[in-house]
């Protein structure tokens, strides 16, 4: 298997958009109106999004303002936060992950929504198709060809004896049931059995940890679910103490002590989202902006964590990594 290595790249299909989206950019540019962008659960992860907008000559307080609402990854609170943003009203809602995007979708059918880091936006019911989203939602997806199989292959290459894997997922995340099914179909191809670890709320993590102690999986696969990311430090600590390998989706989890990650660059997703916000503020319709799909993924290994677990990562696998943290 060949892992995609090299400069991070994304398909930014930005041309060919219609310039008739109402009440947004043309009037803003002509009248000096400040564009208002709604964000739920702000965090440092959003910094590349704001930086990209600055590079596009948006200056906070002059021609752009951010409206922040907190939900702490809780679905009901996300619904309330999204509804509150529509009452401002904001010109665009920028959403991270499927749960936020679904909350925004419930709140408005007219305000443009740019959804970033979505699993399967079609399966989640967010868009009609990747090429022609329809409605008021566009954005980008974390999925690429055979991502699930590639993660399992990397685990097998790193730990040939791995036979039982666990998948930590959120039943309230619209993209996760489809991902769970993909793992269920792919696991037998690698002679693995799959343990399902659902976690809807923060209180569910104690049960997840107890189930892992009982089932003793060889490895845990995680997602970028906003609620789960808030508790990822505890997950990494649990895996470390119990010498369970972790396959994560984002680089930061590996920097923080996780074993490996294979996935897209999150900063790139946020930057691409900002490009779409700019297009919409200039008059493009979300319906005409295709869902951007990643073409290059990054593979990160934390060699220090591997050594602490007593794992010897094959030299051939280390050579395929985009980054090895010593």
Question: What's the short version?
Answer:
The chain is built from 13 helices and twelve strands. It has 326 residues and is α/β, with parallel strands linked by helices.
Describe, in plain words, how this protein is organized in 3D.
Helix 2 packs across helix 11 and helix 3 crosses helix 4. With 326 residues, the protein is an alpha/beta fold. It is elongated, with a radius of gyration of 20 Å. It has a seven-stranded mixed β-sheet with strand order 7-6-8-9-10-11-12, with helices on both faces. It has a five-stranded parallel β-sheet with strand order 2-1-3-4-5. It has helices at residues 25-31, 47-55, 75-87, 97-107, 147-158, 176-186, 204-215, 226-230, 232-241, 251-255, 266-281, 303-308, 315-320; strands at residues 35-40, 64-69, 92-96, 113-118, 137-141, 164-169, 193-198, 219-221, 245-248, 260-263, 298-302, 323-325. Residues 1-30 have low confidence and may be disordered. It contains 13 helices and twelve strands.
């Amino acid at each position: 298997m060949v892992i995609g290595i090299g400069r991070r790249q994304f398909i930014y299909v930005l041309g060919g958009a219609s310039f008739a989206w109402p009440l947004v950019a043309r009037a803003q540019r002509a009248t000096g109106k400040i564009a208002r962008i709604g964000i739920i659960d702000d965090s440092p992860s959003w910094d590349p999004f704001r930086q990209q907008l600055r590079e596009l000559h948006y200056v906070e307080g002059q021609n752009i303002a951010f409206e922040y609402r907190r939900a702490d990854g809780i679905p009901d609170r996300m619904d309330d936060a999204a509804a509150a943003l529509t009452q401002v009203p904001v010109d665009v809602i920028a959403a991270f992950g499927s749960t936020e995007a679904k909350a925004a979708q419930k709140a408005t059918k007219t305000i443009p929504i740019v959804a970033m880091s979505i699993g399967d936006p079609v399966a989640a019911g967010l868009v009609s198709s990747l090429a022609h989203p329809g409605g008021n939602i566009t954005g980008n997806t974390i999925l690429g060809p055979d991502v699930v199989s590639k993660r399992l292959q990397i685990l097998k290459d790193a730990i040939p004896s791995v036979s039982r894997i666990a998948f930590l997922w959120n039943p309230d995340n619209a993209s996760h049931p489809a991902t769970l099914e993909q793992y269920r179909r792919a696991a037998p191809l690698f002679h693995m059995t799959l343990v399902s670890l659902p976690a809807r709320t923060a209180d569910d993590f104690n049960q997840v940890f107890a189930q892992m102690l009982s089932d003793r999986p060889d490895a845990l696969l995680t997602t970028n679910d906003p609620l789960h990311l808030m508790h990822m430090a505890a997950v990494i600590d649990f895996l470390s103490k119990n010498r369970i390998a972790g396959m994560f989706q984002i680089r930061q989890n590996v920097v923080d002590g996780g074993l490996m990650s294979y996935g897209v660059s999150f900063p790139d997703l946020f930057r691409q989202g900002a490009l779409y916000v700019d297009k919409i503020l200039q008059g493009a319709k979300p319906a005409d902006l295709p869902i951007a799909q990643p073409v290059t993924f990054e593979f990160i290994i934390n060699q220090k964590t591997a050594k602490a677990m007593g794992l010897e990562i094959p030299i051939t696998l280390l050579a395929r990594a985009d980054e090895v943290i010593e």
